[in-house]
Amino acid sequence: MTREPYPTARREDIVDILHETPVPDPYRWLEDPDSPETKGWLDAQAELFGAERGPQRFKDRIAELLRSGSVGVPAWRGERYFFSRRTPDQEHAVYYVVEPDGTERALVDPMALDPSGLTTLDAVQPDKEGRLLAYQISVGGNEESILYIVDVATGERVEGPIDRCRYSPIAWLPGGEAFYYVRRLPSTEVPENETQFHRRVYLHRVGTSTEDDVMIFGQGLKMTNYYGVSVSRDGRWLQVSAHEGTAPRNDVWVADLTASPIERPELKVVQEGVDAQVGLYFGRDGRLYVHTDRDASRGRVCVTDPAEPGYDTWRELIPEHPEAVLSDFAILDDLESPVMLVGWTRHAISEITVHDLATGEVVGEVPAPGLGSIGGIAERPEGGHEAWFGYTDNTTPPTIQRYDARTGETTLWAASPGAVEVPPVRTEQVVYRSKDGTDVRMLIISPVGEASGPRPTILYGYGGFGLSMTPGYSASILTWVEAGGVYAIANLRGGGEEGEEWHRAGMLANKQNVFDDFHAAAEHLIATGVTTREQLGISGGSNGGLLVGAALTQRPELYAAVVCSAPLLDMIRYEKFGLGATWNVEYGSADDPEQFGWLWGYSPYHHVSESVAYPATLFTVFQSDTRVHPLHAWKMCAALQHASTADRPVLLRNETEVGHGARSVSRSVDLSADTLTFLAKHTGL
Length: 685
What we know:
Elements: E1 15-18, E2 21-24, H1 36-53, H2 59-66, E3 70-71, E4 75-77, E5 80-86, E6 94-98, E7 104-108, H3 110-113, E8 119-126, E9 132-139, E10 146-151, E11 157-162, E12 170-172, E13 178-184, E14 199-205, E15 214-217, E16 225-231, E17 237-244, E18 251-256, E19 268-271, E20 278-282, E21 288-292, E22 300-304, E23 315-318, E24 324-332, E25 339-346, E26 349-356, E27 362-366, E28 373-379, E29 386-393, E30 396-404, E31 409-415, E32 425-433, E33 439-447, E34 457-460, H4 475-482, E35 486-490, H5 500-504, H6 511-527, E36 536-541, H7 543-554, E37 561-565, H8 584-587, H9 593-602, E38 616-622, H10 631-643, E39 650-655, H11 665-683
Parallel strand pairs: 34-35, 34-36, 36-37, 37-38, 38-39
Antiparallel strand pairs: 1-2, 3-5, 4-5, 5-6, 6-7, 8-9, 9-10, 10-11, 12-13, 13-14, 14-15, 16-17, 17-18, 18-19, 20-21, 21-22, 22-23, 24-25, 25-26, 26-27, 28-29, 29-30, 30-31, 32-33, 33-35
Keywords: Hydrolase, Protease, Serine protease
Catalytic activity: Hydrolysis of Pro-|-Xaa >> Ala-|-Xaa in oligopeptides
Protein name: prolyl oligopeptidase
């Protein structure tokens, strides 16, 4: 069958000279989404994708498995609690409050706000008494996070819209009359290309104009800083933190709000200028608990006095574990001997241990439903003997478990509301060796039953920003495996599965390690008979899109098919678009001669070579993506279509009115069906 001809893409003779190196950029014109030429090219790519797409083989089954719905960990405020739930037929999760008598009411329903499904709920934060709720929404995938306040009892809007609140925490003061939050400066006060940056911490009094907000922190600091802010339950202690972009380190300060005005808090340094991360928890016992990877790559918990919070005063309570990463903790103190529950991930599998709060000694463990992922250990803010946590694994939709420290029992507190028949699968974790001899782990999910030789396989990876790939319920994975395929997830360096050292072994000058780990995962799957080169597809999104972009340019012969979603691919110019300037702490900057060398060494767009038989490749991008601009995929798609000699297609799926993050269920189903159909066609499933 003859492949459809590719749309014409003009090649320009643009070459930048950077650090004495010629850097060609023949498709720079595709960086302008509003030009008639770009729009015409995108329309032609949409026609080509439609012609090549074929029937969506897996759509009904993915939709059926997503009818499981979902449920979120509760947030307690007195006798009220708040939680999210998505029922089988809902496009988005709804945020609810439950009264002491058990009455349940919807507080924020994205579909009620916008029946088109384009509005998403980005964040929520009840005040300390549970009387007011702050929530943030965005439209069409832009993740702009417009802030509103509603009265919990009546559901009536009290405040808002307050704009420029993307990635803003809300730190309520007791009584609900005021909160600290983070907001970008107005676009009129910053250069045009810096409107996504320049954040500040403000104090806002409910019912007053934001023009009267008092700036608390951030003036004169780096434009790419992100800020955190929180207030202790009793309202005494304020915590402010600053991250330079996505750097794995932060500066942290505390202020005693009883000793200085809330408009001018006197901040004391907890940590400043140190290459480590710190998170603070103000205990009901008056102690300050410090969760840190300082001197402990896998994390530890120390205690100190919040009035004298400097490093020299820290006393270690929970030491670093030799092979598990400390992820979370909660304190249960309505007991004869108060305890701390500590969440860990051991090689990406979650567990919780119980420790004596005074000594840190292990006194037990929390039974978990299986080998999966635990998230968000929650306690009552006023204390107690119960904790709640989320649990999921490869065949279990999200559940909420309740742990009772008096009995030592874990029970199911809430399940995802939809009843679905989940196919049986076999999950195993294997260890393979990377190029430099490093042991790397990989989860392999396959059909139950006797193996019948190599199978069409999808290899997935991420490998960046310290994010861990942990087991979780996925309609897409289950659909693929039920159809006879294998799905493998590699825990590459650059992630957080083995702690901060593991992350740093895959960032900056070490980024090639991530790609080597991925190639080695593919070679292991082939060598052990799981699959063959002709049956192996790879998939990744965002930083994982960079991963598969590098994989297909470095080892095109190793892979049959590639799905590259919302990717970074032009690593020389990535800082100029979206939130790219906040990621140079992860990748490096092309402005620096040494760091340019790292980026130039693997930048996928610049490593597309003429007359190479590239794998079948599908780029999926989102027109409203304000994190990773779709221009990366547009330029790479044009380059591959020009260069590849294979009869395998290079296609672009360009979706409008969605962005990098949350989307409606029906849109998720469509995207998953298209990607699985493409991978099945080109791996022989």
